[in-house]
Amino acid sequence: MWDASKGHDSFFMPPTSITVLDLSAYVGLLAVGATLNMLLGLLMAYRYSPHRSWPHRRFNYFRLHNWMGYVALGVSILHPAILLSSKNPRFRILDLAYPVHSPSQPLDNTIGAIAIYLLAFVAVTSYIRIRLGRHLWKAFSVYFAAAALFWHSLFTDPALKSASMNWFDGGKFFVESCVLLIAVVSLLRLRYARKKGFHARQSSH
Ligand code: HEM
Known about the structure:
Low-confidence stretches: 2-8
Number of helices: 7
Bound molecules: protoporphyrin IX containing FE
């Protein structure tokens, strides 16, 4: 990701060893980190009470979860927006809003854009509180958004060279760890929902 010989590749950046692509990639990784907000959402699904359990304090993590959601969306938009100042390759606004014909890795970029649209959908619908069933629409949108953004983050070559992937590169390793963490906690959540459903059926007989 880091190549001192590639500095000074944007309209506004002074000649440093960090390129626009590096900066965009770091902000992209920050966006992936912010999506760990899903873990707070999963705690809410468990009806976890920080007052009853650890840390035994009243703490409105629902509000934190909402704010983190907006931060995740904002950082996710900032990451491709930074690409607008890249000289080589050049990205136009259309290449970001509809990356089907964007320069280099258009498929991965399109999947990244789908992730943003889904995140925006979740944020807007949560805000206006549309109620559809048991919030299943929200869970599905969040999981599709996570799948899209993880796909994009794992399979995009940060140097845009479509080179064979180094899965142990720092950035990729961070994304892999996030995928693993979310997958494990989601599976536990699924097991919990199944158990709860089973007990509910037992007690109704
Ligand atoms: C319109 C939407 C998007 C476009 C056009 C786009 C485009 C790109 C491009 C061109 C790269 C490679 C160059 C660079 O590193 O900047 C990249 C890397 C990356 N993108 Fe995106 N992206 C989009 C959305 C997202 C979203 C929503 C996320 C996560 C929330 C994300 C996370 C990442 C990460 C983590 C990398 C770096 C991977 C690494 O360093 O190995 N991107 N993206």
